[in-house]
Design goal:
Structural class: mainly alpha
Strand order of the largest sheet: 1-2
Strand content: under 5%
Number of domains: 1
Radius of gyration: 19 Å
Distance between the termini: 22 Å
Number of helices: 15
CATH architecture: Orthogonal Bundle
CATH class: Mainly Alpha
Number of strands: 2
Largest sheet: 2 strands, parallel
Order of helices and strands: EHHHHHHHHHHHHHHHE
CATH topology: Farnesyl Diphosphate Synthase
CATH superfamily: Farnesyl Diphosphate Synthase
Shape: globular
Length: about 350
């Protein structure tokens, strides 16, 4: 692999809006790590702090100017990311136990004093959402979507991550589980507390709204795979990246795979924009439905802005934590340059 691979930058036919509180939780985030994430080790905490994961929440929900409403969203952005990083190599039977316990805590049970600190963050977020007026049906929604992130996403990745030899899923299979494991179903739920309005159940469940939420996930899958490609391209066992999968399935070059991935990304983005402009009649909830899809679009462009402009170190060498059952050797020095095409 030579150093001339050019990664195209993700762009959208709608604006990117800056958050008025973009970096507001930087100090609180560090305290959360020090108090509740000690299970990932001192070195792990050191790696996490410059990733600025709390900024994902503010960048992706840029119309929110309330620290109180955004705080539990920032907590979720961190705890879902660390959960994925740390438990990504955990055997399925153990992961199922954790998924059940996470659901219990997110739905109302307080963690025990001797339980892992990440559960305290989940309980704190739940209480803050309720204190800020989020209804129980919304708590149910985000709890179920987090559970499915684990069960339909992380769980489905395990056979590929633990295979002795690199094994690639077909593209359709990859997208079927990666749309869950990318975490965007619960991320998308954060629109509601950010705008201080919980979308009613019957509007949320409408197939057009659900397709827009699915497109949020699919677009961010490709965004993330471009962002992480530089780190993953020389990890011998890494297979869960759309660039690798397209290259393997269609026997094409890395550059051609990047082109095909971007075509798919752009088609998804155009579909979302088209659906937003042609929503069905939601009656008295028309404005709220339109605003929700508008904020789905802002989440997408905001996430890209975080990748490119937030200063995160997440995709640099030695940035990820070592997972449970993982290996220090999972962190690989990249010996070549990959350039971002403006």
């Amino acid at each position: 692999m030579k150093g001339e691979l050019i990664l195209p930058q993700c762009r959208y036919p709608w604006p990117t809006i800056p958050s008025p509180i973009a970096n507001a939780f930087d100090d609180e985030e560090k305290a959360w790590y020090d108090n509740d994430y000690i299970f990932i080790s001192e070195e792990g905490i050191k790696r996490c702090k410059p990733q600025f994961l709390s900024r994902v929440a503010t960048y992706m929900n840029p119309t929110c100017d309330s620290m109180d409403r955004m705080r539990p969203c920032a907590r979720l952005m961190i705890y879902i990311t660390i959960f994925d990083d740390f438990f990504g190599m955990t055997p399925a039977n153990e992961l199922k136990i954790m998924a059940d316990r996470v659901y219990e805590v997110m739905m109302g049970q307080d963690p025990h004093e001797d339980e892992i600190g990440i559960l305290r963050q989940m309980a704190a977020a739940r209480k803050e959402w309720l204190a800020n007026g989020m209804p129980q049906y919304w708590i149910d929604r985000v709890s179920i979507n987090f559970y499915e992130f684990i069960m339909y996403g992380m769980m489905e990745e395990i056979p590929f991550k633990q295979a002795e030899n690199r094994t690639y899923p077909l593209l359709a299979h990859y997208l079927s589980f990666r749309k869950y494991s990318i975490g965007m179903w619960p991320y998308g739920d954060l629109i509601d507390p950010s705008v201080n309005y919980a979308l009613p159940v019957h509007i949320y469940n409408h197939p057009i709204i659900q397709r827009c939420r699915e497109l949020l996930s699919l677009i961010i899958v490709i965004q993330n795979d471009f962002a992480s490609l530089k780190k993953e391209i020389e990890i011998d066992h890494e297979c869960l990246n759309i660039i690798f999968i397209l290259r393997h399935q269609y026997k094409i070059s890395y550059q051609e795979a990047c082109t095909e991935a971007m075509k798919l990304h752009d088609a998804y983005a155009q579909e979302l924009d088209d659906l937003h402009q042609s929503l069905p009649d939601f009656g008295s909830f028309q404005e709220e439905a339109y605003n929700h899809v508008y904020h789905i679009k802002l989440q997408i462009s905001g996430c890209a802005d975080w990748y490119y402009n937030s200063g995160t170190s997440r995709y640099e060498h030695k940035a990820f934590i070592v997972p449970q059952y993982g290996r220090e050797g999972d962190d690989i020095i990249i010996p070549h340059s990959i350039f971002i095409k403006e």
